[in-house]
Amino acid sequence: MGKFKLSALMLALVAANSAMAATEEERTSAKEIDPELEVIEVRGFSRSLIQSLNQKRFSDTVSEQLSADDLGALPDVSMADALTRLPGISAVRTGGQAAEINIRGLSGGFVFSTLNGREQVSTSGSRSIEFDQYPSELISSAAVYKSPKASLIEGGVAGTVELQTASPLDNDQQHKFTANVRGMYNDRASEVFDATEYGDRISFSYQGKFLDDTLGVALGYARLFQPSVATQFIGFAYNGNKDVDGLANDTDGPADNPANEYISEGFELQHLGGEETRNGYLTSIEWAPTDNFKLKGDAFLSRFDSESFARGFRVKFGGPSAVYANPVLDGNAVIGGAINRTSNSFTRVEIVNDDNQDFDEVDSYGINADWQITDRLNVNADVSLSRAKSNFRNGLLWALVAEDATVENPVFDTNVSLNYQLNGLNLPDVGFNQADAFSDIDRVMVSKYGIYPYENEDEVKAFRLDFKYELENNWFSSIEFGARYSDREYSNNRSVFEYGNDGAFSSTQPPLRLTDDMTTVVDWQGEFSYFPSYLAIDLDKALNAWFPNGIPQPVQTWGNADGVVDLDGDGEPDAQGYTTNYSWTMLQSGSVYEEVVSAYLMLNIDTEIGKLPVTGNIGIRRVDTDQSATVLENVGGDPQLGAQYIVDDNGIVNDLYAPSVLGIKYTDYLPSLNLNFKVSDATQIRFAAAKVMARAPINRLAGDASASVNNDGEINGSSTNNPFLKPFYADQYDISYEQYFEDTDGALVVAAFYKNIDSFIDTVAIENFDFKGNGFNVPEYIVDPVSGEQIETTNGVYTTAVNNAKGGYIRGIELAYTQVFSFLPSPFEGLGINASYSYTESEVQSITDLGGDSVSQDLPGLSNNVFNGTLFYSYENFETRLNVRYRDDFVSEQVAVNEQVVNFDAETVIDFQTSYQFTDSFGMLLQVNNLTDEPTQSYFGTTSKTGTTQFFGRQFYLGFTYNH
């Protein structure tokens, strides 16, 4: 085998439209550039790696690239899985699969994402898109920009992820058809009663060129149907305290012994099962009637439907009024003991049979016109629409143990005692005095059913105009400038339906007597086999029996439908009697508006310093933002302050609130610099510096603010979110050394980065807040009801979310090594490795008290050490690879009764794939994801306070590919 110079090959590839010289036409073109060059044909995974290195090498920013041969060539289930193969990128697993990505120690909220250069909105209610909604079969390439340039849309402090769909006129074949058909199996599904074990993954794509290559068409469809399976233990936060060791009044005890110990709310033991169906659609049409003009329109649609159940136990310890015996302490937190119910506690075991449905829609449309007006001037215009809808229906079914469910008026069994012992990251030891009753239909009764929908809609319309003018001088190759306008609207609607009581049996809404045809006794298996059996309840049969006229639909309401309501949202009834406060469904529903006008100016550098070639860019981006949100302000019914009659879905009228819109405007300037020093043909050094910004999650701009005036005339208010939140800002610096191997395929990259982030979101109490100056409808005075005198109002405290948490640095190093051992003798020349390691640290800390004592925890998304390695081998028509992804401890959200930001333990996820190509067109593939069935495990502050232990199972894929 002759000498193989990668640098010469890459220059040949650039001349051949940056594609590998795999076709006869491309090989001929490469030889014409350098007749002495022996061009090696590289296929499959090796080809994708070299294409990615090629794109990274000639990029004008610090970036990572991911490339596929054709539509359908990426093997990953979603783009989240694919992106985790890149240096400095890790993923948070949801349901066992990568969903949110973290870049350089920052969570998904700091990641900005585009599709074909267009901003994407999300179904999550935040700005972080859910990458598992983007089928890898419909994406031809991806780039992660770690350093920005002025022409990129602002928004990524961690980085910007750019997804690209196919450009049919760039396809090297006149017509190309690709099909993938795979069956799927989850080996844990058999442990979960009524779970689906098998799934499938199917995709088709076509690319064609017509009318003398002036018209191109690309069509794609990708379907994923898969089981959603997990077996889990979830511990709840330590949100109470009690003197459990009797030392509260012991003056002779240790000085560091506080009066009370921290106690947890309880825990859950659950089987999760269900089905996920994702259908993705892609259409792209390109028209190039002349050499200097191209018009392209494309559409991408994703429909992701999930229907799942959660069955098992929810154990409530009962708060400080419960009796604790033989407590086991970890520091000042209770991690074990015996608990007994008292007349004042709510200690109980709930048998849960929950039903969740999530229907997500993602649409992205765009039209782009590119016109090379003269040899020097290029104009590009783009119009786009990105839209996302999410309809999440959270249905909860509670069942409790009765003394005797067969009698006419059953009584809730209050004889409840339990014992438990947490075992760190392992499963706990548990015991229940009612264990035999959990699977007995003569003891278990359905006591409550609730539906709690979250309906989100997010839409952004954008218009963009860019100009590029080629220059003739020794410093700058061209100048780019342009402007962009975007109009975004986000809305959230909450509603509720509840019937019954989850803590006892209601006399007015009595429990349901279960029958044999409604239930199945479920036994735990595997690691969970020592937990007591329970009743799985057929939801349809139970609810049809309980609601023979149909289940009422959830509504937005001020209170319950019997007229006893909480009108002012203070949790107290405004009429005699008891009420449940549902005013949150009205106050938490609303819209957020965001208009952004941005403009940029950028010079592309192409010069020499001494004899050292230097390329890159320098520029600045100006961003004007106008953000606002709807809000219902409690003005005490004063019509002069805008109070209106607001009718809910039940016809209940509330005249205390004034609808309003609150918000702010601000302007930012974002300079950026990217320099690439070409030390030699194979060596280059990059330096980048920039100011970057990332806006707060769109749902955190919601206007659930309220303000009220007390009898002394003092105005006070609060808000969980804040329409006045400004972006996160950071100054960042990057430097990297890139060595591309001359005699073999591959590269070595060493990079370092430093980010200084100004602040983070925190909830604080602002003294002497200017309510009127910030748009609140507040009176200038009130009238004393006794004396009739006017009392001038004064500003008090406003508790809200602000960009006030202390910022700080995030810094780290990244190492990436790619090697295709093409110099080895046959049959070993197809052996290769692609590996990366990153170390990240930060001084940013947040305070959490979920584990009892207030302790510091790291920035969400940050793992100090992240490793990703792929060992691959190909020989003739055979190819195989093994991928290992490791990240050490990190902080992220754990969803339980409420969202809990906790510490996650280190995890190692191993995937395996092998394939064989029977002909040039037909091949077979075997893929195993999560080969070792790695669980996710979390904890509160210390590993002894267990958070989550969740097993998802291995996913096996077997199928065939066809290309023609």
Automatic annotation (TrEMBL):
Keyword Membrane in record: yes
Pfam families found in the cross-reference section: Plug, TonB_dep_Rec_b-barrel
Family annotation (SUPFAM superfamilies): Porins
TonB-dependent receptor-like beta-barrel domain span: 441-931
Transmembrane helix keyword on record: no
InterPro entries: Beta-barrel_TonB, Beta-barrel_TonB_sf, Plug_dom, Plug_dom_sf, TonB_rcpt_bac
Compartments in which it is found: Cell outer membrane
Residues annotated as domain TonB-dependent receptor plug: 63-159
Signal peptide positions (record): 1-21
Keywords associated with the record: Cell outer membrane, Membrane, Receptor, Signal, TonB box
Stored PANTHER family: PLUG DOMAIN-CONTAINING PROTEIN, TONB-DEPENDENT RECEPTOR-LIKE BETA-BARREL DOMAIN-CONTAINING PROTEIN
Family that this chain belongs to: Belongs to the TonB-dependent receptor family.
Full protein name: TonB-dependent receptor
Species name: Pseudoalteromonas gelatinilytica
Lineage summary: Bacteria, Pseudomonadati, Pseudomonadota, Gammaproteobacteria, Alteromonadales
Gene responsible for this protein: btuB
